[in-house]
Amino acid sequence: MSLHKARIKAFEDVLNEDVVNMKQLQKLAFNGVPDEKGLRSFVWKILLHYIPQERSAWESTLLKKRQLYQQFIDEIIVSPGGPTDHPLNLSPDSSWSTYFKDNEVLLQIDKDVRRLCPDISFFQSATEFPCPEIVNSNGVKRLHKRVEQSVLKYSTLERRGLGVAKLSNEIRRNEGLYSGDYTPLNEGCEAHWEVVERMLFLYAKLNPGQGYVQGMNEIIGPIYHTFASDSNKEFRKHAEADCFFCFTNLMAEIRDFFIRTLDETESGINYMMSKLSECVKKNDRAVWEQLQRQELRPQYYSFRWLTLLLSQEFSLPDVERIWDSLFADPQRFNSLIYICCAMILLVRDNILSGDFASNVKLLQNFPPMDVSLILNKAVKISRA
């Protein structure tokens, strides 16, 4: 039996148990989950605590969650109760006030999802399972339609001097929004980026304390791509609902990276950056000293690495491979620190011979590299 087939069988054996042995699954997944037979998609669902370890509960859990998601779509997107009072009603609980606030969020989401993973055609292509209530509504229920209309409405309101002035800058910046970015598909069809837009909008509505923060599109993208590419048709059909809950669970773990007031707490981003700096210092004093001398702070390059779980530094297949290890890490984000440290140490010669400008450029545009080199180095660092 080939090594690859043996790995697939090892995963299948663990998943066929009545209760999945989490430790064993994490150990296997840490070394990469095979793409075949929808394994990655299924394993991620368990590692992100969406599917329970008890095999007997899988079917009922999935059914319940998928029905709940359909309810969210019906209540928040298909028939959200719509504005009933006057658009000039200044009361904060006015439905118009909510509508405008929603559209502000939508403008940002729409802009971000139209640029997701431009190096592959996946997000621009049509999903096999469009949401029927939305794609057959003559455009009325489509979120991007609301964005196009709100851009016009805001401009009209602003011309009449009705005080939506702060949005006018947003609109002017967005005038180029529909050129060069992904375009919506015709009635009856829906592109994958439109599905991602809907999930992010629902997430923002259901998590008002946090809302939508730029960059969340980069976190949800690889999860959705993995689920929507599942070889199992039934799982592809429910990729949107499954992805929404897995993304929600992952955000519950990393949301502190996105909340500025928590920057200094143990779960905040500054704490993570200082941990990375310590890790470099411990493993390669010369590199650490060079970065200190040049005052090249982790904020200049690792903010994006850590916040977006490296999703912007590598191609999508590499990101998915890195995430196998991240999701399999019981301490979850310790391995993220080790991977980032490995990236820095693997370009040590360039750093030691480079000046400030070339080193910033190097770390902000990390050079293409075999991702298994980085992951192997990260394992060595974790054991040091």
Q: Spell the H/E element sequence.
A: HHHHHHHHHHHHHHHHHHHH
How many distinct helices?
A: 20
What is the oligomer described by this structure? single chain
Distance between the termini: 34 Å
Major sheet details: none
**How much is the radius of gyration in Å?**
23 Å
Let me know the number of strands: 0
Structural class: mainly alpha
Q: How much helicity do the residues have?
A: 55-70%
Overall pLDDT: 84
Name the poorly predicted regions. 152-180
What is the percentage of strand-forming residues?
under 5%
User: Tell me, what's the shape?
Assistant: globular
Write the layout of secondary structure elements.
Elements: H1 3-15, H2 22-30, H3 39-47, H4 58-78, H5 95-113, H6 132-135, H7 143-159, H8 165-173, H9 192-206, H10 216-228, H11 233-237, H12 239-254, H13 269-283, H14 285-293, H15 302-307, H16 316-328, H17 334-346, H18 348-353, H19 356-364, H20 371-383
Helix pairs in contact: 1-2, 2-16, 4-12, 5-7, 5-9, 7-8, 9-12, 10-12, 13-14, 13-17, 17-20
Structural notes for this entry:
With 384 residues, the protein is an all-alpha fold. The protein is 61% helix and 0% strand. About 8% of the residues have low confidence.
Keywords:
mainly alpha; 384 residues; 0% strand; globular; single chain
Give a quick summary of the entry:
The chain is mostly helical and 384 residues long.
